[in-house]
User: What shape does this take?
Amino acid sequence: MNSLFEIQPEKLNENVFQLLGKDWMLITAGTIDAYNTMTASWGGMGVLWNRNVCYIVVRPQRHTFSFLEKNDYFTLSFFHEKYRDVLKFCGARSGRDVNKAAETGITPMETGNNAVYFGEARIVIECKIIYYQDINPNNFIDPSIAKNYPQEDYHRMYIGEIVSVKIA
Assistant: This one.
């Protein structure tokens, strides 16, 4: 397990394209008593409404979706490459069927806001949900985007204000 220390979001010195798109992350929502986590490689970070934010997109059929709908906070946990198999497992299996933490050996931990992250993470970003919107295919200016939705199961985008960043 890693010892994490808190930094200001502006001090996070990472390439977000690498971090999100290549390294992947676990999106986790819920409380230590009832949560789910899922692997993701789509999302972003930036400044919106004069706040440091992350945005994530989650399809409604994902188990994590219901936890995002019922809770005010979510976390993004980023790991060293040696945890790639954990990320693959958490992306391929549903929390409806399996306890992902128990199966992979990662350790659920609780933030001061009762959100869940994993002790083995090298970076943890905790966010408070401040906005959501469903992706509307009528707004695809580039029609090739639709190929990402062959089942028309459009994501819901959640924007979370970053409330803490912890790094190992």
Remarks:
- The beta strands are 5-7, 25-31, 34-40, 43-48, 51-58, 73-78, 108-110, 116-118, 123-134, 156-167.
